[in-house]
Here is the input.
Amino acid sequence: MLHVRRARIPAALLPPVLARGRFDPLEPAVLCDLVIEGRRIMDVSAAAGGDGAPGATVIDAAGALVFPGFVDAHVHLDKTHTWNRAPNRSGTFWGAMEPLNADKRLWTEPDLRRRAGFALRTAWAHGTRVIRTHLDTGPDSEISHATLAALREEWRGRIEIQTVSLCGGEAYLGKLGEALADMAIRHGASALGGFIQMSDTLDRQIAGLLAIARERRVGIDLHVDENPNPQAEVLRHVAEGVLRTGFPHPVVCGHCCSLAVQDPARARSTIALVREAKIGIISLPLCNVYLQDRVTPEKPFPRSPRWRGLTLIEDLLDAGVPVACAGDNVRDAFFAFGDYDPMEVYQQSLRLAHLDNRLADSVRVVTSTAADLVGRPEFGRVVPGAPAHLVVFEARSFSELLARAAGPRRGIDGETVASLVPPPYSELGDLGELPA
Here is the structure.
């Protein structure tokens, strides 16, 4: 048994009865004592001092902030750490496609295992305990799904790895979509996905995907509207398709950038449809700020970006739509940076989207809401019965944490306490020549 004393827990992640009326909105955390037995949190109570439960090992957090293990709800483990051999020289969305497609010839099982394995060790060291990865999916992509399925088994009990297929929406117009779905599900996919774009066949693509997913009793998780075009309304069409068919399984849409540049009345109408259809939204702030509104030959002035690339996070939240934030691409042609650290995602999301306006609830975007959207609501919370995965920071306040989010941290997993240190890049090894 492990007794953790004086842990400062974000109020939004505690049992409501324990959080109610006990925190300052500018520092929305509650000083608590925790009892852990085996792999579960057995008790959470207001800090009371004392020596702890008889026979328990006692850890004094001394008022440090303690989060539940993070949930990174949208990443790309098949593409990760390919920047050195497949850089994006334009920094644009479409500029990423060619180098990554060319790089796929190198995606052997050893290559995928080395890159994705290093990414998982990094995610673990930052405190992630559930991760959902999208995998490029085509007739030649079985090796990616098989490799991630093997890694899922190897990491079982440490990080839960979910996979989602990712293909063009046109695949769902015919038998190819069924074949790709069956291949993904055979390797344990949690949902079916796709990169869906505006087209004359858009509604047919959505209908085909929903029918395939319904037949296989899984949800869908899509990339939509990752552009600054106000006419891009795939999100709206997905919501209408879900409502029209009564699709019964979870639906998640990622990016949704164009919603932010649409006419306000139209955007409000779409948000209302999204809420009615019970669609969850995942914003990818790091990647979208990097890619959106880049300088191109068609945009010589102003050279500076004039919008943040984010969807309408606060407006979606105001409407009651669940929103999570996630890391997306890491060190590949879509995003040259990143480190599988949900605390970095949280810090930057809060700054970019002004989530300090709702600081208490903002922690949900990488914890409880993210867990809900990937179908694992027992994670991302500090409540009795929850998995005993905790991240202990040196920071004693939100102000300290958000000023130095990359600071040292410890992990509590079950009754084991250990320092969390990311692996050095030297352990990743040589993945190819640096570009000339």
About this structure: The chain has two domains: 2-68+381-420, 70-373.
